[in-house]
Known about the structure:
By secondary structure, chain A is mainly alpha-helical. Chain A has helices at about 10-15, 15-20, 25-40, 40-60, 65, 70-90, 100-110, 110-130, 155-160, 195-205, 210-220, 230-240, 245-255, 260-275, 275-295, 325-340, 345-360, and strands at about 160-170, 175-180, 185-190.
Amino acid sequence: MSETRKLARCEDVAPLLVFYTCDELTSEEREQIVAHLAICDGCRAQLSEEDALQTAIDRMPQAADQFESSGVLLAQCRSELSESLDELSAPKVNEGWQPFGFVRAWMALRPGWSAAALLLVGAIVGTQAFQWLPFSTGNGNGSALKVFAAPRITPETLNKMELSGINSSPTGKIQLQLQAEQPMTLSSDEDDADVRRVLTFVITNSDRFDAGVRLDCVEALRAAASDEQARAALLAAARKDQNPAVRLKALDALRDMAGMPAVRDVLLETLQHDSNPGVRVEAINLLVRAIESGSELPELAPEAPDSESPVQGTAPQALPFPGRDTEQRILRALDELRQHDSNRYVRLRSAAALRQIAQQDMQ
Amino acid sequence: MPLSRWVLALADSSGRTSGSAAALATVTSLPNLDERALVSQAQAGNRAAFEDLVRRYDRDVLRLALNLMKRPEDARDVYQEAFLKVYRNLHRFRFECSFYTWLYRIVTNVCLDHLRRRQARPEDQAPEIHPNRMEEGPRDFFDYQKEHRPTLDPERSLMGKEIQSRIALAMERLSPRERVVFEMKHYQGLKLRAIGDALGTTEETVKNSLFRATRKLRSELASLR
């Protein structure tokens, strides 16, 4: 606004009437306008309109008077501000460096997406991670991965347990139900270390377990007879078990192992000392089978001299397999049974076995 | 129209020609000294001093916010935002102008932001509440009956209400800056120079805004002549 200009014309004065009414003109401008108003009816009329408008504006009720007459709003504002200042003034919690802090913040703000992302990561890790692990390199043909659990059966558990049930599935899977301090069920095939330990323990501790349980255990161990531990348990059962059915079952489990020296030793011992004719007959059968299946059996330990043996000096002069001591010992044992066994069927079976072996030797 | 102590001080200072900042800072000396000490203590981290400053001016801040925003909830937001800005930026205040001026600049900027936001997204806003409209309420038969009491003039009363309603409507159509200038001039009693200082602009610009605002109001009331 120029303070030096002359305000003589209505078009110069009219725009300033607004500021004239609200007292925003310099004294010089005011004087010029007053002089013009004295001679101009039109500008005077416009000024009266401006005054009326100013009055109307001044009379307008104010929102502040309406809303804040009680002071409640101001109190609320002060309270909220005080709380905000408390938050600003509170020392920040030094959380230190947080790896993946931005991930945490992102996940906290987007729970739905976070759940989906976690599921996706879990699926990828579950399906792909094993291929990258070192122990899985030999398993690329898709065969099942064997995971060996840590043994759960301790020696104390073995000593205190009771075997309440043995279930064998057609696929060879065995389930054992044990009654120990805490009942437990072992479910696996014979390769499972715990199952095998329980089975061998039952077989070799015949005085603690029922004959039926021992029979089931022998049957369960049949498939594992090639294992040294299982075979030793079966041999012990065949030699020492009090129940002839168990001994018979143990010999049957060793059928395919009859050519092995340890098994033949037990068979010969059974021939000569087992009290049960059925067991002795089974031993005869297995020995004959061993001789028939093997061209030349491995040598057995030297036969201990038995001064009380009734067959000593009575062995047939011409036995098959001359020069082969193992077969010679078996034949002598069979011949002894043929002549002196108390059971007629054993004597007959021994004689038949000798003939059978002689025929094979001639062939 | 109630004028606060500091508004009166600003209005009184306008007649002096020592520059805009000086015009705003010209207040009685003792309160100024007290205020300066308070600001210094608040800058040093004294929470009580800051709250004392708030107590001195927050009533006027809330009044301005209410008159401009026309909604209590918006006025509360303006109040909070303005004083939190003051708290966060108090260390930048260098006493180059009075604390009033600085505070008022922040408050008006916050109000302008809110008004511009409201203008940009009118569909998200609740309608403004105008006291004169609230008082009106639904009109019935008795509103149009002749007043027999000699002290009252029903025609004038009705015309006055109509004028106020038109003014309120016209106020809604002002731009945010025109609205702030109009409010500060007519209802806060500030001089144009002080308004320019608060808005960070020149007196001439403020004058133009006030002129445009007044012209809009007059055109709205033209049909009542």
